[in-house]
């Protein structure tokens, strides 16, 4: 486990990892960005709701997806991202474009790519839906003001350390085909991070803890 979760320690742990090439697949593809920044109030950062919590520790950007009847992850806590467009040269380009569109952060201008995490199959109601999701980890050099589009209901910065140390671990009662299944989750204030986003963050923590 990292002795601290400050951004410099994370960059030192993840920096220099070779990003894998995009895999050839017949399934649809998507990409998301796990975006880290120095804590609010540090030089070059804007103040945020997490200021004063876990001093010195890096902060993670989470979004809550807007409610939409055609979105299988409607209203879920998530990382910025979305489906690959035909014009995207790579999944990394997808993550950068979707982040810019959803929250107004230009990762090409303000971010540094730290790592590509393993691909995950998208699952809805316990079933694969023919799509692969690739998470990328970025560190921000500066924090521009967030500008949310209509796909995002809210965005917040939360300290990474408590999540990575298991201090926010809980279970989420999910009803599937009439049965209640208790799934692992993370609690961020009163928000529940579960499912695919939970699995992506667990992959990040595994890499950090090495």
Q: What is the secondary structure topology, with strand pairs?
A:
Blueprint: H1 7-14, E1 28-37, E2 59-65, E3 77-78, E4 81-83, H2 91-103, H3 107-110, E5 111-116, E6 120-124, E7 127-140, E8 152-159, H4 160-164, E9 169-176, E10 179-188, E11 191-193, H5 195-209
Parallel strand pairs: 1-7
Antiparallel strand pairs: 1-2, 1-4, 2-3, 2-8, 5-7, 6-7, 9-10, 10-11
Give a short synopsis of this structure:
The protein is an alpha+beta fold. It contains 5 helices and 11 strands. It has helices at 7-14, 91-103, 107-110, 160-164, 195-209; strands at residues 28-37, 59-65, 77-78, 81-83, 111-116, 120-124, 127-140, 152-159, 169-176, 179-188, 191-193.
Distance between the termini: 7 Å
How much of the sequence lies in strands comes to: 35-45%
**What would the CATH topology be?**
Nucleoside Triphosphate Pyrophosphohydrolase
DSSP summary: helix tally:
5
The SSE order reads HEEEEHHEEEEHEEEH
Q: How many domains in all?
A: 1
Query: What characterizes the major β-sheet?
Result: 8 strands, mixed
Overall average pLDDT: 89
Low-pLDDT runs of 5+ residues are: 43-52
Q: Tally of extended strands?
A: 11
Radius of gyration: 16 Å
**What structural category characterises the helix and strand content?**
alpha+beta
CATH superfamily: Nucleoside Triphosphate Pyrophosphohydrolase
